[in-house]
Design a protein that fits this description.
This protein has 276 residues and is an alpha/beta fold. It has a single domain, classed as Carbon-nitrogen hydrolase (Nitrilase/N-carbamoyl-D-aminoacid amidohydrolase). The protein has seven helices and 16 strands. The strands form four sheets. A six-stranded mixed β-sheet has the order 5-4-3-2-1-16. α1 packs parallel to α3 and α4 packs parallel to α5.
Length: 276
């Protein structure tokens, strides 16, 4: 059994305040016996006001945060799976980048969000992530984490099952899906999508989420979850507010499930339609 902690956050536009919250959570999680602290998407900076966000991201000291988070993981004695933070990109846009920082000081592993959230919701909400962000270009797996082979994804990636099938084929034990889900899409799809991704990858899914009313005016769904490879929800932190939740992850459960329903082993290439 490996004990993990999920930090359900209500991040805002002050990166330093968010960093301090993560630091306090890391220390508390380590005292609680956790080996890894998982944080949500945009844990370090959540701000849809792109002019204001740009001023933060372009400030000279902002580039120090990855090194500070790496030092924090060592100091606190716990791996920190930072759900993501915006990072300046050579294109002039940003990337939505996740990091896995190690307690033992190893170089961090990073992942840039592949699928960008460009949607028009029936509530009138409009999101155009691609206006400010470049999509990622490759998969990332943390090969030797405290929870085995850990696949990295971010939020909207959850809607693209081929990604999770590939992470399952690559024998990931756990998959992180940090998120800042809207309330309408969260109510409709969050639980069912997370359970489906765990089942089809035959892996644990660990999904730390943003929650509540944020400084930039958005409201997020919460319900940070851990789901086992059979699709059973082991932890649901609800939507009452920020906090730390703990869960025990039993990696032996993975082979048990894969032996019962060997869908990854049984997969065949999908044939094309016959020529008309």
């Amino acid at each position: 059994m490996t004990r993990i902690a999920l930090f359900q956050m209500c991040s805002g536009a002050d990166a330093e305040a968010n960093f301090r919250a993560i630091a306090e959570a890391a220390q508390e999680a380590q005292r609680g016996g956790a080996k890894v602290l998982f944080t949500p998407e945009m844990a370090l900076l959540l701000d849809r006001d792109r002019k204001r966000a740009a001023a933060t991201i372009e400030a000279s000291d902002y580039a120090d945060y990855p090194a500070r988070l790496a030092a924090l993981a060592e100091l606190a004695g716990i791996d920190i799976a930072l759900g993501s933070m915006p990072i300046a990109h050579s294109s002039g846009k940003w990337v939505n980048r996740a990091f896995h920082f190690f307690a033992d000081g190893r170089a961090p592993v990073s992942y840039d969000k592949l699928h960008l959230f460009d949607v028009e919701l029936s509530t009138g909400e409009s999101w155009r992530e691609s206006n400010a962000y470049e999509p990622g270009s490759h998969l990332s797996i943390v090969e030797e984490s405290a929870v085995g082979r850990l696949g990295l994804t971010i939020c909207y990636d959850i809607r693209f099952p081929a990604l999770f099938e590939e992470l399952g084929r690559l024998r990931c034990d756990c998959i992180a899906i940090p998120a800042a889900f809207t309330v309408p899409t969260g109510k409709a799809h969050w639980h069912v999508l997370l359970r489906a991704r765990a089942i089809e990858a035959s892996a644990f899914v660990i999904a730390a989420a943003q929650v509540g009313e944020h400084e930039d005016g958005r409201t997020t769904y919460g319900h940070s979850l851990v789901v086992d490879p059979w699709g059973e929800v082991l932890l649901d932190m609800g939507s009452e507010g920020p906090g730390i939740g703990y869960c025990e992850v039993d990696l032996s459960r993975i082979e048990e499930v894969r032996s019962q329903v060997p869908s990854l082993a049984n997969r065949r290439e999908i044939p094309k339609l016959p020529a008309s």
